[in-house]
Design goal:
By secondary structure, the chain is α/β, with parallel strands linked by helices. The protein is 37% helix and 22% strand. The protein contains 21 helices and 26 strands. Bound molecules: fructose -6-phosphate.
């Protein structure tokens, strides 16, 4: 995700800021920028792409002795990854610069207000709105202007702000997006992540949510956003750089599995409005009428994204009562697909660069379909080539095995299916109950994650078996497919996922004494039928590893290994039920000594057909 570095001290700020940005590179970014203050004026330099591009631009300007500055790596959320959208953003006078991590949820209404006051905007970002708002409120006291601006903001932020009119001051604030202050000898380094400060100091002040700091050469003054002074104590950073990047986790995959409550909250933020009973998907708002009346929706993707598409297909049918087909992107393209007037194709992709998905969506567009994207990487090729779309907002996925992108894809497709359902026939009561359920999914995932130790034990007891089955029905069938894919791709154990009822039509022959059969048996319309399938496996000596609802005695009594998950409304269950399967694959791979984040033969983004 985005990264922030700020410097105030005696040394030239530029090299320290650039070094800090490089230490934040692992978080993923698509553009970067720096604002420096030489005591009388600000200079802002930004560029798209790698930090090297930014360095070249800075080098062309010659040495800069400025000892106050802020810098940022941006991972686009609002607006494409362009130079104009890169941070720092400035106010109308160009004398205040601001960098921001997080999302200003009410940026549209703030922007409307500022435009009404005569201000012109250059970028598409929510951050420029904040910079302009600070400038609008500024009357010679930067800290007060920042505080007043944040009082009008809904959303999350970690920010650093400087002004050419107060060249001895750096203002920082945080709410929902981490920020800390490294304390050096006569210098301070503000950063969103300790890795940017460890080369300079191990003394650190962690800002808490709702706090703001005014940093000058000889003091850090900390207040709440209501201007109540807060006494902060310094802490010591004792982690190595690698530990910091992984945030204490052993692998990126585990980190990404565990951060799903937070990434889903981010994905839902500003879209779910439980109070007013609404879902707002700005990216596709202009196409909702066409979508809701479409006679044919086809969801395409590859691998995990295709599994998300399968869940989406069920939801479009069951919640919106719309005909939905799901296809592998690679097959769709060569199948001479039927595209009629009104056909909508939804391309699902984490990276936004998968060649098969890209080729398929080009084919669909060529034939006249409306093509929407459900994409994580903002500004990626698929995001650019679709007619419209909804971003996942789950942050960059670094581990090769897709985890948090899957739950993000499910959340977006669920919101889309609910929106269409409501437009077509879904009762307000059902809509509101699903809306409420969806808002609670991050908490349910957090509960599912608590089973990690139990799941590690299950993995250890079964990891020697070389053939596993993953079985589920209805919405849990794609979850079974995803569980099998996770296990095979990172632990190299052969696994097959299938609808539980299909097993008796052939694959049941694979079951011998001790064959692990992972069932997803949470309460659903087909619950009793799944239990019958479990009995079929048990009577043939298979070993039942079962994901069921907390307190379900019937299922846990039948299982050899039982993994409890919270019960949530059935259409939302895949987001929760997949989490133990991600952990099962992860622990199995670690126990087998596999390279979890970089499994053999696999690439994060498959850009060849
Ligand atoms: C599995 C995995 C792959 C991707 C597939 C599509 O863990 O990561 O199956 O899901 O290659 O990639 P994207 O979503 O980037 O189009």
């Amino acid at each position: 995700m985005c990264g922030i570095v700020g410097y105030l001290g005696k040394r030239p700020a530029q090299p320290i800021l650039i070094e800090g940005l490089k230490r934040l590179e692992y978080r993923g970014y698509d553009s970067a920028g720096v604002a420096l203050c030489d005591g009388t004026r600000l200079s802002v330099v930004r560029s798209v792409g790698r930090i090297g591009n930014l360095q070249q631009r800075l080098a062309a300007r010659g040495d800069d002795p400025s000892s106050l500055g802020i810098a940022h790596t941006r991972w686009a959320t609002h607006g494409e990854p362009t130079e104009i959208n890169a941070h720092p953003h400035t106010d109308a006078s160009g004398r205040i610069a601001l960098v921001h991590n997080g999302i200003v949820e009410n940026y549209a209404s703030l922007k409307e207000f500022l435009v009404g006051e005569g201000l012109a905007f250059r970028s598409q970002t929510d951050t420029e709105v904040l910079a302009q708002l600070v400038g609008y409120l500024y009357d010679g006291d930067l800290a007060s202007a920042v505080r007043a601006a944040l009082g009008r903001v809904q959303g999350t932020y970690g920010i650093a702000v400087i002004s050419a009119d107060e060249p001895g001051l750096l203002v920082a604030a945080r709410k929902g997006s981490p920020l800390l202050i490294g304390v050096g000898d006569g210098e301070y380094i503000v950063a969103s992540d300790p890795s940017a400060i460890v080369p300079h100091t191990d003394r650190v002040i962690y800002l808490d949510d709702g706090e703001m700091a005014s940093i000058t050469a000889d003091a850090v003054r900390t207040v709440t956003l209501d201007n109540v002074p807060v006494d902060k104590t310094e802490a010591r950073v004792e982690l190595s750089l690698e530990q910091i990047e992984l945030d204490g986790y052993e692998h990126y995959m585990l980190k990404e599995i565990c951060e799903q409550p937070a990434t889903l909250r981010n994905c839902l933020a500003g879209r779910l409005d439980v109070r007013d009973g609404r879902i707002q998907l700005g990216g596709v708002a202009a196409h909702l009428r066409q979508l809701a009346t479409s006679g044919r929706i086809t969801l395409i993707g590859c691998g995990t994204a295709w599994h998300a598409g399968l869940v989406g297909g069920y939801l479009f049918e069951s919640l919106a009562r719309m005909p939905a087909a799901v296809d592998y992107a690679s097959e769709f393209r060569y199948r001479n697909p039927i595209i009629e007037p009104g056909t909508v194709v939804i391309a699902i992709s984490q990276s936004g660069e998968t060649a098969d998905t890209l080729a398929a969506l080009r084919e669909a567009r060529e034939r006249g379909a409306l093509v929407l994207g459900v994409v994580n990487a903002v500004g990626s090729t698929i995001a650019r080539e679709t007619d419209a779309g909804v971003y996942l907002h789950v942050g960059p996925e670094i581990g090769v095995a897709s985890t948090k992108a899957f739950t993000g894809q499910l959340a977006v497709l669920t919101m889309l299916a609910m929106t269409l359902g409501r437009r077509r026939h879904m009762s307000i009561g059902m809509f509101e109950s699903l809306l409420h359920g969806l808002s609670k999914i991050p908490d349910a995932i957090a509960r599912a994650l608590e089973q990690s130790d139990l799941i590690r034990g299950i993995a250890a007891r079964n990891v020697e078996r070389n053939n596993w089955l993953f079985l589920g029905r209805g919405l849990n069938y794609p979850v079974a497919l995803e569980g099998a894919l996770k296990l095979k791709e990172i632990s190299y154990i052969h696994a097959e996922g299938m609808p539980a009822a299909e097993m008796k039509h052939g694959p049941i022959a694979l079951i011998s004494r001790g064959t692990p059969a992972v069932f997803i048996a949470t309460r659903s319309e087909q619950y009793e039928k799944v239990i019958s399938n479990m009995e079929e496996v048990r009577s043939r000596g298979g070993r039942l590893i079962v994901i069921g609802n907390e307190g379900d005695k019937q299922v846990s009594g039948l299982a050899d290994e039982f993994i409890p998950v919270p019960e949530v409304p059935e259409p939302l269950a895949p987001m929760v039920n997949v989490v133990p399967l991600q952990l099962l694959a992860y622990h199995a791979a670690v126990i087998r000594g596999c390279n979890v984040d970089k499994p053999r033969n696999l690439a994060k983004s498959v850009t060849v057909e």
